[in-house]
Fold this sequence. Notes:
Blueprint: H1 2-22, E1 25-29, H2 31-44, E2 50-54, H3 61-66, E3 72-77, H4 78-88, E4 93-100, E5 104-106, E6 121-125, H5 128-140, E7 145-146, E8 162-164, E9 170-174, E10 188-191, H6 193-198, H7 203-206, E11 209-210, E12 220-224, H8 232-241, H9 244-254, E13 259-260, H10 261-264
Parallel strand pairs: 1-2, 1-3, 6-9, 6-10
Antiparallel strand pairs: 3-12, 4-12, 4-13, 5-10, 5-11, 7-8
Amino acid sequence: xxxxxxxxxxxxxxxxxxxxxxxxxxxxxxxxxxxxxxxxxxxxxxxxxxxxxxxxxxxxxxxxxxxxxxxxxxxxxxxxxxxxxxxxxxxxxxxxxxxxxxxxxxxxxxxxxxxxxxxxxxxxxxxxxxxxxxxxxxxxxxxxxxxxxxxxxxxxxxxxxxxxxxxxxxxxxxxxxxxxxxxxxxxxxxxxxxxxxxxxxxxxxxxxxxxxxxxxxxxxxxxxxxxxxxxxxxxxxxxxxxxxxxxxxxxxxxxxxxxxxxxxxxx
Length: 267
């Protein structure tokens, strides 16, 4: 009787595993460029049954993942993920490093950073990691100086860490999706690559200042749960997203505004 029970349990486990593998893989993603890249994956790998869940508004894709509403998400970089793990009390798993969206400084009022007026207002993302990232970018471009030590991505900073602000720049914190809309109201805005692309901006052409892709710690990730990290569907999607075909698709379609991690490694 004991052997029969063990066999039955093993059979049930196998059936459950097979059922999961047969089910569509639900992946939450920002519309641009993430969902577009996933749509291309569906084209080149039709055997992988992808259900792309496009994110909108204030939906938290990590909460969706933690609650089991999706199997993976593709929209965030590692510093943001770590911050989310602390906030949600959850542990996630990185399945692949896919691409970099350089953070950019944009303006409809000035043509260069040197032309920023005294007391200029600059809108920045209001979440902890991207606010810090924006301030490091402003230092890199010579607009401010920080008293923090380390490099972008390794040390979180806030406006309190600004030690030198010769133009008396005013930092205005705004929710990331709203930053493109703020361009008419501020002298400049620092906008995440995906939101810039959605707003019709071309980061590689339109930004007054752009993050370097070299040694950039903000690669966008395919993220899942520890339980699904070895799921064959996740493994295959990770393989697809880092394949030569997808790398070429990103190069040809985003013209330096989205940079495959494979390219950064060869800088």
